[in-house]
Design a protein that fits this description.
The N and C termini lie close together (7 Å). This protein has helices spanning 13-22, 66-84, 103-108, 120-123, 127-139, 148-158, 173-180, 185-191, 212-222, 243-255, 269-278, 293-300, 332-341, 349-356, 360-375; strands spanning 2-8, 28-34, 47-50, 87-93, 110-116, 142-144, 165-166, 198-202, 230-235, 260-263, 281-284, 304-308, 324-326. By secondary structure, it is of the alpha/beta class.
Amino acid sequence: MVRVLIVGNANDSHNKRFLRQLNKSDYLDIHIFSYVDMNDVADIENKLFVKRKIFPHSFYKIPKISLLFETIDIFFTLQSIKRQNYYDVISINYMWICLVPSRNILRKMCNKLMITPFGSDVYRISKYEQYQYCKVYKKADYVVSSIEQFKRDLQKKFNIPINKFVNLRFGSDIIDFILTDNSTKEIAKQYFNIKDYYVISCGYNGSVQQNHDKIITEILKIKNKLPYNYILLFQMTYPKSNNIYIDKIEGTLKKYNIKYLILSDYLSDIEVVKLRKATDLFIHIQDTDAYSGSVQEYLLSGAKVINAAWLNYPDLEIDGYPYYIVNKFEDLSDVILFSIKDNSELLTKRVKNIIKEKSWNYQGNKWVQFLTQKNG
C-alpha cells in the first residue's frame, strides 16, 4: 500500500475530483491536509487533517499580517502530523506562500515530494512569491506538467531541472460526461430556455481575467451584424466573491440592450455538459490559462471556438489551429463575424482523440500507475 498525502485546498473541486480518482485504487492510502478552512467535510472520504488555528479568531482579520498567523498555523499543524505519519509521496496541489516555511517539514515527512501546480500559482504571482516558491521547488523530487509550454514556463520561473518533470495532468470529469452523453444541441438549449437562439458563450467563470468587458466592447461594434437570434451567455458560477463585478457586467449588458443570459448559480457536471453542448460559439480570451480544459470541452461538444493567440496549446495545434485565433482584443469583432460564417472543419480526428484522452478515466489510471510503480 502506497501512502500519499495531498496538501492543498480540500474544498477545491479539482482536488475533490483528483481524490475521487485515486480512491478507486486498492493500492493507495490517500490522506489530505487542507491548508484552508473547510466548508463541508461530508464528501471527503479520506483521512483529513485540517489546519489548526492557534491564535484568536480576530487575529486572522488583521490586514497585512494575517498571512503570518496562517503560516504559523500550517507550520505547527504539519509538525503534529509528522510526529505520527510518514508518506511515500506528498503532493502539493497548488503552491501557497504560507507553505514555504514548512518546506523542510514536508521534505522530512515523505520519501518523494511532488508539486502539482494549477496554473494561477505560476502565472499570477508576485516576484516575491516567485522567489520564495523556488525554495520549495528545489526540495521537490517531481513536478507535474504534461504541457510543453507550461513546463518551459515553470523551468524559467523556478529554475527546475528537466529530469524532475513527470508527464501527468489532471483529467476532466466533463470530458468523461461528454463522451457518454447522448443528448442533442437542441435538448441542451431547451434546458436553459434558449432553444431558438444562436448562443455565444463568453468565458467560463466570473473572474475579471476572463475579459468580459472587452468581449462586450467588441460585440457592440458588430451588434447589428450578428445573427438576429443571438444571445450572449456568461457562465459566472465562480468565484462567489465577485458579485460586484457580475453586477457591473450585467449593468453594461442592460445599458446597451444586449440579449444575454448570466448563469451565476452552481452548475452540476451534467449541467456544465449541457452548457457546452448548447453553445454555438465560445469566446476564450482570458489573460492566462495553463490547461485549456474548457476550450477542449467546447471543441469536443461541437462548438466553434475563438481563442486568444497568447493562449497557445501545442498539443491541440499539431494539425493546425482547431479554433479561430484573435491576436489582439481589437480584432475580436472581425473574428467573431468570420467564425460565424465559416463552415470549415477545424477539429481533426487526431486532435479529437487527444482531447478524449484528457478524461479522468484515462488520466486517473496514469496517476495510479505512476504512484504505485514509482513509489510502491
